[in-house]
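User: quick one - fold this with zinc ion bound?
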Amino acid sequence: MRYGIISDIHANLEALTAVIDALQSQRINGYLCCGDIVGYGANPHECIELVKSLNAFCVAGNHDWAAIDRMDMSWFSFSAQKSLEWTKQQLTKDDGDFLRSLELIVKTEDFILVHSGLREAGRFHYVYSINQALDMFSLIDRKICLVGHTHAPTIFKKAASYIDMVGSFEFALEKDCQYIVNVGSVGQPRDYDPRAAFGIFDSVAKTISIKRVPYDIQKTQEKMTAAGLPQSLVERLAIGR
Ligand code: ZN
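Assistant: Sure. Structure tokens for the protein plus zinc ion:
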């Protein structure tokens, strides 16, 4: 299978459309979504519809949970709370049903999918450091675990005697190694590259690539401003932070 990997779409329709267009020329025959379809952006309903149309393996993120009242809003920043309040008003019953149907962890023969850490997955711990990755690897019983949440492309590799970060965004999965792969965010990148991020996982060729594609940021920002969403959320899209 060649999987297109998307994560942290955050209701950014222009970014999601650009990513799906880019994946269309990549002989993709399956999609993986690491959560946070909604929150922050101006098109939660449209993004849910698009993800549904992909028939993706998909897990719930913390914003998806907050939008259906499965998570206490006090966990979120002030601007995130504002956007979530607005998001709740935009969701149809079907949208809510879809978000409620999402599991926290999806496991197949080829991969594990989770929004954040595997330990206490419903508490959405971040995995930034080698030590956090070390703990997470103890729970991984597949070659690869795909995650989101930090909005920054990051790859951890566990070999027989060490754990390291992989510096390349195009690489082959090595025999006897395991990987935690975060392909970054479609709709709100935070690695100072404002272009939408996505990935491709070829489970036969055993390769991963993380790619970027530009999208109409200004259009997204105008829609967010018109919706009355917090300006800090609007502005950060232009700098990718
Ligand atoms: Zn997110």
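One thing worth noting: Residues 78-90 form the longest helix (13 residues).
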